[in-house]
């Protein structure tokens, strides 16, 4: 069964010489999967036996769900986006989630207003904290953790140490040192998995388990993808086909990829995807610019540009065929709005038709359209999709001849900021902020 289908709608727009890529794709595949490849722990982690890790995450998640009203998760970049993406995609839009509790994120910005209002909102709620940082020294989460550590100690006294869970490297970094010194419980981010490839480790799994997501199903989907996509044959590997289509479009002047979907709960998945592809490919003055649109909202805004503006954009339409909840358009006796022709139709059907209409219109406008179709929006299929994107991204970056696993450009802003904050001496002494 093909869990995910990729295809390009308007093939006539672009000639893809598939055979030109066959060998390089196979060679990159062998490099990625080879024993000497670095930072590729994520490739096999869903296949490996992770029962113990899953059990201990579920144990702590259950403890948190019983003892707390809210889990405050501190992290940024790869230590934030994946968890938030999965949580938003799989938990209800409104109201309480029956299987989980509220999970709130902080440490992705340095807004004093955000921290102040978050602290105020916690007043009558029982709180746990999960601080996530692989390096253990990133400025934004480090500052937020300083605030929340003090808050928890003041509020819970000795019990605070039990309510703070640390997710970080096993050996290195200030956060690891703090955890060891205080006895905070710790989950490990494997050394050979970089931030933006870490969502299927405790980085993403603990927060989403607390939010009520079935992490076993999520990992099952990822495991299926890891197995199916372990195939060097370009014709049979959907992730590699997606990577090649992207590269072919890039070479033909389409420098911007728009990830588009029709379900608003996927907006944060777009953000995770942007980080994955943007940080992995955007280097050495190369790379597709990853952008996203959420439809129908953006059809009434940036849709004009996509249809009719500079021909530099191609669109990747992400579609889940089945969505758990739905609603029927009611019949109206008056029919003042002339909408009775849609009475008794399901909103999800209308949405799916609007997706087809958009794809056809944009294709007519000369926009290349890649279609990614999955059966159902659930933990299993999302796990599959996440793995699919990570594998496609690694392939795509290597086809561009850049390293998918470093991010030298991110360091530039940190250096400038630290200079401006005039803390060079402090930084040298403690290694904070780099
Ligand atoms: O992908 C990456 O490596 C980065 O985006 C990191 O995830 C981000 O900078 C946060 O790093 P850390 O987890 O070390 O705080």
Anisotropy-based shape: globular
The count of strands amounts to 10
Separation of the first and last Cα atoms: 45 Å
Low-confidence runs: none
Q: List bound small molecules.
A: 5-phosphoarabinonic acid
Biggest β-sheet description: 5 strands, mixed
**Helical content band:** 40-55%
Radius of gyration (CA) equals 23 Å
Which structural class fits the helix and strand makeup?
alpha/beta
Strand content: 5-15%
Features:
single chain, alpha/beta, five-stranded mixed β-sheet, five-stranded parallel β-sheet, 14% strand, globular
Structure description:
Its main location: cytoplasm. It catalyses: alpha-D-glucose 6-phosphate = beta-D-fructose 6-phosphate. Its EC number is 5.3.1.9. Belongs to the GPI family. It is found in: Cytoplasm. With 434 residues, the chain is of the alpha/beta class. The chain has 17 helices and ten strands. The chain has helices at 18-33, 41-44, 51-67, 81-90, 112-121, 139-156, 160-163, 174-182, 202-211, 215-228, 238-251, 267-281, 303-308, 347-364, 379-399, 408-420, 424-430, and strands at 4-8, 70-74, 102-106, 127-132, 164-168, 185-188, 256-261, 289-294, 313-322, 369-376. The protein has a five-stranded mixed beta sheet with strand order 1-10-9-7-8, sandwiched between helices. It is globular and about 65 Å long. The chain starts with a strand and ends with a helix. The model has no long low-confidence stretch (mean pLDDT 93). Bound molecules: 5-phosphoarabinonic acid.
């Amino acid at each position: 069964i093909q869990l995910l289908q990729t295809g390009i709608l308007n093939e006539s727009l672009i000639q893809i010489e598939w055979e030109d890529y066959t060998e390089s794709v196979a060679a990159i595949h062998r490099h990625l999967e080879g024993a000497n490849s670095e930072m590729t722990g994520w490739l096999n982690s869903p296949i490996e036996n992770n029962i113990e890790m899953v059990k201990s995450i579920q144990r702590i998640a259950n403890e948190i769900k019983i003892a707390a009203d809210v889990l405050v998760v501190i992290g940024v970049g790869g230590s934030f986006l994946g968890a938030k993406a999965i949580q938003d995609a799989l938990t209800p839009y409104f109201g309480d989630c029956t299987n989980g509790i509220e999970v709130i994120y902080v440490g992705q910005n340095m807004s004093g207003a955000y921290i102040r209002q978050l602290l105020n909102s916690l007043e009558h709620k029982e709180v746990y904290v999960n601080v996530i940082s692989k390096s253990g020294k990133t400025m934004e989460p480090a500052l937020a953790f300083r605030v929340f550590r003090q808050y928890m100690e003041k509020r819970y006294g000795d019990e605070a140490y039990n309510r703070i869970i640390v997710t970080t490297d096993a050996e290195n970094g200030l956060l690891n040192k703090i955890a060891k010194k205080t006895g905070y419980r710790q989950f490990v981010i494997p050394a050979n998995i970089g931030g933006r490839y870490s969502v299927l480790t405790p980085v993403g799994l603990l927060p989403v388990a607390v939010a009520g997501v079935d992490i076993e199903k999520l990992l099952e989907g990822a495991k299926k993808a890891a197995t199916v996509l372990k195939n060097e044959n370009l014709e049979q590997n959907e992730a590699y086909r997606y990577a090649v289509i992207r590269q072919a479009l890039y070479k033909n002047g389409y420098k911007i990829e728009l990830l588009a979907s029709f379900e608003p709960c996927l907006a944060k998945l777009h953000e995770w995807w942007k980080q994955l592809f943007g940080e992995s490919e955007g280097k050495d003055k190369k790379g597709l610019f990853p952008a996203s649109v959420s439809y129908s909202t953006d059809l009434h805004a940036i849709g004009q540009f996509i249809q009719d503006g500079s021909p530099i954009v191609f669109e990747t339409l992400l579609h889940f065929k089945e969505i758990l909840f739905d609603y029927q358009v009611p019949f109206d006796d008056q029919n003042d709005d002339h909408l009775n022709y849609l009475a008794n139709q399901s909103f999800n059907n209308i949405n799916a038709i609007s997706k087809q209409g958009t794809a056809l219109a944009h294709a007519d406008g000369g926009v290349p359209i890649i279609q990614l179709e999955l059966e159902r929006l659930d933990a299993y299929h999302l796990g599959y999709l996440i793995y699919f994107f990570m594998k496609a991204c690694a392939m795509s970056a290597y086809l561009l001849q850049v390293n998918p696993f470093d991010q030298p450009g991110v360091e530039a802003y940190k250096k400038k900021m630290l200079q401006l904050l005039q803390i060079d001496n402090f930084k040298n002494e403690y290694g904070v902020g780099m």
